[in-house]
Design goal:
Blueprint (H helix, E strand, L loop, with lengths): L1 E8 L3 H12 L4 E4 L7 H5 L8 E2 L7 E2 L3 H8 L4 H10 L4 E3 L4 E4 L4 H14 L3 E3 L4 E7 L2 E6 L2 E10 L14 H8 L4 E2 L3 E2 L3 E2 L3 H5 L4 E10 L2 E12 L3 E3 L1 H15 L4 E6 L6 H11 L8 H4 L6 H11 L11 H12 L1 E5 L1 E2 L7 E2 L2 E2 L17 E3 L7 E2 L4 H14 L1
Parallel strand pairs: 1-2, 1-10, 2-7, 10-22
Antiparallel strand pairs: 3-6, 4-23, 5-6, 8-9, 9-10, 11-21, 12-20, 13-16, 13-19, 14-15, 14-17, 15-16, 17-18
The structure holds flavin-adenine dinucleotide (FAD).
Flavin-adenine dinucleotide (FAD) binds next to α1, α2, α6 and α13.
Length: 403
């Protein structure tokens, strides 16, 4: 049997930063990690480049049922404070698009290597292949059953993340431990995830990537609009604009809302500009098939879909007139796609929901229910936009536990 002052469940972003901060303050820390190696999500993040944070931290980029909690946690912890920590472990950060920050090496593995080195330097003990299966508290002591025996400690940090991406260690276990100890769980849904559609035309467009403006409708009402690339796939739709909308779709599908996307396939052309362009191209005597005529403008795979959706009867160029052009333009700029589901936790980068933050002290991240029990990172009911905001919350909440 092992006894430690501080145990951390999870060697992910929040667990590692907290371990280093606590160890630097002279505490004896043991980190338990179920995976064979530490920081698996960090390693794959940002397509292997690790979008470690964002230069512009604003409360609007975070989502929770308790925004006041997020505001308090982030108070005094903007990007500069996070950069200071990473500088202290030897990592130089550079700025990409939209304030996104990356290690200068553009290699996520360098982030994990430096975190691991720093943790060991300050005497943090990290036990991989060690899954925590049960937690109990006897008096002031937490007793953890693990796949490597029983561990005991006085202070326990649960930094076990969310169920997103189980292949990288995503797990529900932290929620089970927390709820058993009296905490409340706010329902979790997959987010930053691709969307599924049963519409047959989407399969036909599989592989086509276009810049788009996507509008989400729920039960016919406009909810949200996002700009960015979209990619048609054999299951539905992916791409950055879709990931950015997915949080809203996921939570709405869970309450049985009817979700539909409207896609503008030529967002750089206003309706007027596109009308003029198309009208000016019409050659009145031409027998060029409509599908060929549109090839100069749209991706081949999209053309017959657009023609079918527009319900135009026109077959050749010379039959085109303003009315028929309007039908085509409406279809190009407002093609509708009903959404049947998300691709689920397996494909999601993050999960919404988590432990109710009303039960957590935002200064120290300590439970208001169980003394000396702490939470950090994605296990809490806080999630962020794409762009480094999820890591930002994980780093900040982990740092707070170590103070
Ligand atoms: C593919 C992908 C790309 C991403 N890219 C970015 C990005 O570029 N920028 C960004 O800001 N965010 C990104 N994210 C999100 C980001 O990785 C997470 O928000 C962040 O890692 C959460 O940190 P965490 O410490 O809460 O949890 P995690 O990093 O998930 O760490 C939790 C750890 O706990 C371990 N664990 C769980 N249960 C147990 C148990 N019972 N016993 C022992 N160990 C356990 C897990 O194995 C895991 O290692 C990405 C996520 C994914 C999946």
């Amino acid at each position: 049997m092992n006894r430690h002052n501080n145990i951390i469940i999870g060697a992910g972003a929040s667990g590692l930063i907290s371990a280093i901060t606590q160890a630097r303050a002279g505490k004896k820390v043991l980190v338990l990690e179920q995976n064979h190696k530490i920081g698996k999500k960090i390693l794959v993040s940002g397509n292997g480049q690790c979008n470690i944070g964002n230069k512009v931290i604003h409360i609007s980029r975070f989502h929770s049922q308790n925004p006041a909690f997020v505001e308090k946690v982030l108070q005094g912890y903007g990007f500069k404070e996070i950069e200071k920590f990473f500088t202290s472990i030897g990592l130089v950060l550079i700025e990409g698009k939209e304030g996104k920050m990356f290690p200068m090496s553009l290699q996520a593995s360098t982030v994990v290597a430096l975190l691991e080195y720093e943790a060991h330097k300050y005497g943090v003990e990290i036990l991989c292949d060690c899954t925590v299966t049960h937690i109990s508290k006897e008096g002031k002591t937490f007793s953890l059953q693990t796949t490597q025996g029983i561990k005991r400690c006085e202070q326990l940090l649960i930094a076990s993340g969310s169920p997103a991406s189980p292949q990288l260690g995503g797990s529900n276990s932290g929620y089970a431990f927390a709820t058993k100890m009296g905490h409340t769980l706010i329902p979790r849904h997959p987010a930053l995830v691709q969307l599924c559609s049963d519409e047959h035309w989407v399969k036909e467009a599989s592989g086509v990537k276009v810049a788009s403006v996507v509008t989400l409708y729920a039960n016919g009402q406009t909810i949200l609009e996002k700009k960015g690339d979209i990619l048609f796939t054999n299951y539905g739709i992916s791409g950055l604009a879709i990931l950015d909308l997915s949080r809203e779709v996921s939570t709405r599908l869970a309450t049985f809302d009817y979700c539909e996307l409207s896609l503008d396939l030529l967002p750089t052309f206003s309706k007027e500009k596109l009308t003029n362009l198309l009208l000016n191209r019409i050659q009145k005597q031409s027998n060029k098939p409509l599908s060929l005529w549109l090839q100069g403008i749209l991706h081949k795979k999209l053309i017959h879909i657009i023609i079918a959706q527009s319900k135009t009867k026109v077959k050749v160029e010379k039959e085109l007139n303003r009315k028929e052009i309007n039908k085509l333009i409406h279809s190009i700029k407002n093609i509708k796609l009903s959404i049947s589901d998300t691709r689920g936790f397996k494909s999601a980068e993050i999960a919404t929901g988590g432990i109710d933050t009303k039960e957590i002290d935002p200064q120290t991240m300590e439970s208001k229910i169980v003394p000396n029990l702490y939470f950090a990172g994605e296990i809490l009911d806080v999630d962020g936009d794409r762009g480094g905001f999820n890591f930002h919350f994980a780093w900040v909440s982990g740092l707070r536990v170590g103070l």
